[in-house]
Amino acid sequence: MIKVVQLGLGPIGQRLTRYLSEREGIQIVGGIDPDPQKTGKDLGKWADIQEMNITVSPNLDSCLSVDDADVAVISTVSSLKKLEAQVKEVADCGLDIVSTCEELSHPWQTQPELARRIDDYCKQQGVSCVGTGVNPGFLMDFLPSVLTSVCRKVEHIKVKRMQDARPRRKPFRDKIGAGLTEEEFNEKRDTIRHVGLPESVYMIADAMNWELTDMSETLEPIQADKSIQTESGTVKRGDVAGVRQVARGYQDDQEVITLIFEAAVGIEHSHDSIYITGDPAFTSTVEGGVNGDIATSAIIVNTTQAISRATPGLKTMLDITAPAYFSKQEAPVLD
C-alpha cells in the first residue's frame, strides 16, 4: 500500500484526489492547501466525492498524518524556483515526491543550478523526486524517446500536439490566451504559453545522447477565423483562439528535434503525432489526441509506484521505471 499526502488542491489536485482515492494499492492520508476556503474542509467533500474523514491542513506542520505517508504528490506551481522550498520541506519529512511542476520535468539544462540544489538536497534526505505529466513528461518527450527503441538509426524527431481547447478546463484556456485581443495577448505574452517545451527538447536529447549546440522557441497567437462558443464565453472572430508554440533543438546547424504545440478553441482535428526520421522511419499518431486533464492526473497516480522504487535524488522520466497503470487486487481464496 502506497500512502500519499497531497499538496495543492486546485482543479488538478481535486481530480488527483478522485483518481488516487479510487486506486487499489494507494491510500490518501493527508491533504494540504493554504487557501482558507479549503482548510478545515473534508478532503473528499472538497473533491466532490464521498467524505474521507481527512481534514485539509494549511501546511505540512499541521498535517499530523504526514508521518504515515510514503509519497507526496505536489500540484501547486509550474515554476521550479517557486517549487524549491516546497520540495525541501517535503524532503525533510522523508517523503518521495511526484510533482506536476512542468519546469521540474528536465531542468538540467534550463535551470542547472536549481536542479543541482534540488538533487543534492533530495540525496541528503534519502528521497527521490520527479516532475511529470502528460506534457511535459510523456507525450512530447518520454514517449518519442521510447519509440526510438526500435530504430537502428535516428536522424530527426518531430512531435506535433494539436488540441481543441474547448473540452479542457477554463484555466487551460486562460493559459493559452483564448478570448484575448491580439493587443492583450502581446501584453501578457510572458505568461501565456505552454510551460515545459524546452524541457521536452532536452529530455529527448538526453535520451538520444545528443549534445545540443542550440535550442530555440517561438510563440505566436492563433486567431479565430469565426466566432467560437466555449463554456466560459465567446471567442470573437479575429481574437486569439490559442497559441502555436515551436521549440527546436540543433546539433551545429542541423535541426534534430522539432516540437510543435498548438492548442486553440476550434481546432477540428485534434491529434498527437510523432515522426521518427531514421531506420526505420515511421509515424505514430493518436487520433483525437490524449485528454490532457485526465492523462496528467493519471500519470501522476501511476508514477507514485515508480518513484517509490527509485534511488534518491532528482529524477526525470528517463531515470525511473516506466510508469504503468497498476492495481492491487485481493489474493484469490483457494478451495
What do these coordinates show?
The strands form three sheets. Strands 2-1-3-4-5-14 form a six-stranded parallel β-sheet, with helices on both faces. A six-stranded mixed β-sheet has the order 7-10-11-6-12-13, with helices on one face. Strands 8-9 form a two-stranded antiparallel ribbon. By secondary structure, it is an alpha/beta fold. Strand 4, helix 4 and strand 5 (128-131) form a beta-alpha-beta unit. Residues 330-335 have low confidence and may be disordered. It starts with a strand and ends in a 20-residue tail after the last strand. 27% of the residues lie in helices and 28% in strands. The chain has two domains: 2-133 and 294-315, 3-Layer(aba) Sandwich (Rossmann fold); 142-289, Dihydrodipicolinate Reductase, domain 2. It is globular. The chain contains nine helices and 14 strands.
